[in-house]
Amino acid sequence: MTASTNQRTQYLDVSKRTEFTRSSLHRLRKNGGIPASVYGGGTEAQSIYVDEKQLARVARTGRTEFFELRIDGAQGIPVLIKDVQQRGGKVLHVDFQKVSKNKPIRVKVPLIYNGTAEGTKVGGILQIQATELEIEGLPDDLPSGLEVDVSPLGTGDKLVAAGVQLPEGISLIALEDELLASVVLPRVAEPEAEAEGDAGAEPEAAEGGGEKE
């Protein structure tokens, strides 16, 4: 029910930051640069900056992506985006974490739902409960996304994490029974209970008829 979207190794050229004054930071951002840090791998954190357009080219802001950093033209360093600070939709700072190509890592990858669920053809409603799935694997084996075919789902059917077919070398980290999608029938409003008696009936006249003096 699932196919993977292969993740090609992408490269991002960055530069070391040598100035840390407020004015230099303002100038950097004005010229389209984004301050960033790269850490991990048992080495000290490095302060760098990346071109805003280059970052947008290789990564979807705010989502974990694997690629290689080339700092001032040096050999690529495998990294993941671990944190993105934003304000008003503008990226202010990015944290990159070094990873080893020989060690499995955990990431959340997007789920891409395809097809028309069978249950929707008879009045059912497809409900998407999850847009990401946590998996584990070597960086070079990680898919950038998982395509899920929902067309077999009938009314009352559910798709859970264990039902997703993963590429070879990739294991599931999410709970097996995590609900991803389901097809439900729309709720039918229950008719209101009939009011007791006839609300429009005239009240019976009191015995004796006339008003008391």
Automatic annotation (TrEMBL):
Keywords: Ribonucleoprotein, Ribosomal protein, RNA-binding, rRNA-binding. GO terms for cellular component: cytosolic large ribosomal subunit. GO terms for molecular function: 5S rRNA binding; structural constituent of ribosome. GO terms for biological process: translation. Residues 105-187 form the Large ribosomal subunit protein bL25 beta domain. It holds the Pfam family Ribosomal_TL5_C. The keyword Cell division does not apply. The keyword ATP-binding does not apply. Residues 12-96 form the Large ribosomal subunit protein bL25 L25 domain. Residues 191-213 are annotated as: Disordered. Residues 191-205 have a biased composition (Acidic residues). Part of the 50S ribosomal subunit; part of the 5S rRNA/L5/L18/L25 subcomplex. Contacts the 5S rRNA. Binds to the 5S rRNA independently of L5 and L18. This is one of the proteins that binds to the 5S RNA in the ribosome where it forms part of the central protuberance. Belongs to the bacterial ribosomal protein bL25 family. CTC subfamily. This is Large ribosomal subunit protein bL25. The lineage of its organism: Bacteria, Bacillati, Bacillota, Bacilli, Bacillales. The gene is rplY.
